[in-house]
């Protein structure tokens, strides 16, 4: 009976909406869109990605779904980076433990613990955009990456690095960031989730500001030396934080000595 009542009410509402003048429905749609706020733009017309971005809560509030991502329409968990390991990489992963996590020694990740490069091992990051560069600042470990967006190619005069060499370009309203020249000293993720990679890692990220308060990020990671196929990262949706700058959260090996000691005695993971 309740279902019939709700169904009837819904049908009536739809019939009423269909009878509205076209201009009224258009105005309502415009008002709904405006409620989210227009996408801010820079002087050159591109979307301005500047701001402090997070998921709406700090790192203590993240969930398993946020870490691994979900399939379409709440389906099974999406594959992880390590879930696509070749047999040889799977064998190597079985020899590693929490104590081998490079982040315990203040080494950043190559990508990001929450599947967001901007966050690194934390859950908050800041973007500063200029006509020539997009600068991404990570709060935890107080790291940064400077991304040229003026058409220059990848540099060929720098050694491989933890976060790779990044360049960007605009495709319409989407910023595409291409990263290469990684070393193999980092993991993709952190906190004991074994996710080593090779120096052949290649990351492509796509940043799209949906409205004034929402930033969506798509990413694909390729590593032909360790993966069976590219890892397509579940789409990430970030919110504009209610504060306008990140804090300085540095890392010192002495600060995490207790964590290292705690994991030294753990047996290898199966």
Defining key terms:
alpha+beta, 9 strands, 9-stranded antiparallel sheet, 24% strand, globular, 270 residues, 2 domains, disordered N terminus
Please render the helix and strand layout as text.
Blueprint: H1 2-18, H2 22-36, E1 51-54, H3 64-68, H4 87-93, E2 125-129, E3 133-138, E4 143-148, E5 165-171, E6 174-180, E7 202-211, E8 214-222, E9 231-240, H5 257-264
Antiparallel strand pairs: 1-2, 1-9, 2-3, 3-4, 5-6, 6-7, 7-8, 8-9
Task: Give a short overview.
With 270 residues, this protein is α+β, with helices and mostly antiparallel strands.
Strand order of the largest sheet: 4-3-2-1-9-8-7-6-5
The number of helical elements comes to: 5
Rg estimate, integer Å: 22 Å
Percent helix: 10-25%
Overview of the molecule:
By secondary structure, this protein is an alpha+beta fold. The chain folds into 2 domains: 2-36; 51-264, no CATH class. The chain is built from 5 helices and 9 strands. A 9-stranded antiparallel β-sheet has the order 4-3-2-1-9-8-7-6-5, with no helix packed on it. Strand 2 (125-129) and strand 3 (133-138) form a beta hairpin. It is globular, with a radius of gyration of 22 Å. Mean pLDDT is 82; it is low at 1-35 and 60-73.
């Amino acid at each position: 009976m309740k279902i019939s009542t709700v169904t009837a009410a819904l049908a009536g509402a739809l019939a009423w909406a269909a009878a509205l003048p076209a201009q009224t429905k258009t105005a309502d749609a415009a008002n709904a869109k405006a409620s989210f706020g227009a996408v801010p733009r820079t002087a050159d017309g591109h979307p301005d990605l500047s701001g402090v971005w997070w998921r709406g809560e700090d790192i203590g509030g993240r969930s398993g779904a946020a870490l691994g991502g979900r399939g379409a329409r709440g389906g099974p968990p999406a594959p992880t980076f390590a879930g696509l390991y070749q047999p040889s990489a799977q064998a190597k992963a079985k020899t590693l433990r929490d104590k081998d996590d490079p982040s315990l020694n203040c080494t950043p990740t190559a990508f990001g613990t929450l599947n967001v490069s901007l966050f690194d091992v934390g859950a908050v990051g800041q973007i500063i955009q200029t006509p020539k560069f997009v600068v991404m600042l990570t709060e935890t470990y107080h790291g940064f990456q400077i991304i040229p967006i003026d058409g220059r190619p990848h540099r060929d005069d720098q050694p491989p690095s933890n976060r790779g060499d990044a360049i960007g370009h605009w495709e319409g309203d989407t910023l595409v960031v291409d990263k290469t020249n990684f070393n193999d000293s980092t993991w993709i993720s952190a906190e004991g989730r074994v996710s080593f990679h090779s120096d052949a890692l290649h990351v492509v990220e796509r940043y799209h500001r949906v409205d004034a308060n929402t930033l969506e990020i798509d990413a694909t990671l390729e590593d032909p030396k360790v993966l069976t196929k590219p890892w397509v990262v579940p789409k990430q949706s970030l919110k504009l934080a209610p504060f306008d700058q990140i804090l300085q959260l540095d890392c010192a090996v002495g600060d995490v000595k207790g964590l290292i000691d705690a994991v030294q005695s753990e047996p290898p993971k199966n």
